[in-house]
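seq as requested:
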Amino acid sequence: MTIIQEIVNQFRQQQEKYIYYLIALSVASIAFSVHNTLGEPIKWAQAPLGISVILWGTSIYCGLTAIQYFIGSLPANIDLIVAQRSKSPEETNILEVLNEIGDRTKKLIKYQRNTFYLGIIFYVAWHITEMIIRANS
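struct tokens:
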């Protein structure tokens, strides 16, 4: 394995870890939110919390979809290696497919990160709202 291949593999592994961590944190955040509201009636003040849960759910979806793209790109990578070794004209088509998969994956990872952090912001807004309501009652 060349140095470039090793660096690419390390980058991909770290990227996958990052995706898995955000998925795990989003799942834990949803569970914590559900636990915090057990037994409480639904009220408008919980709207930011609901938005948080939706954003974290979106983050999970984006992360899982990005992982599917990673997995789906493996056969195309193998085809590319075979095409490069055999000097096949299909190499250009395969590169286009891999570039498209890469672009979609980058967008999904960006959306995953952004929805995760937005979920945190809305969770904090909900928490502050609840504190204000308790202070005024």
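The chain has a mean pLDDT of 92.
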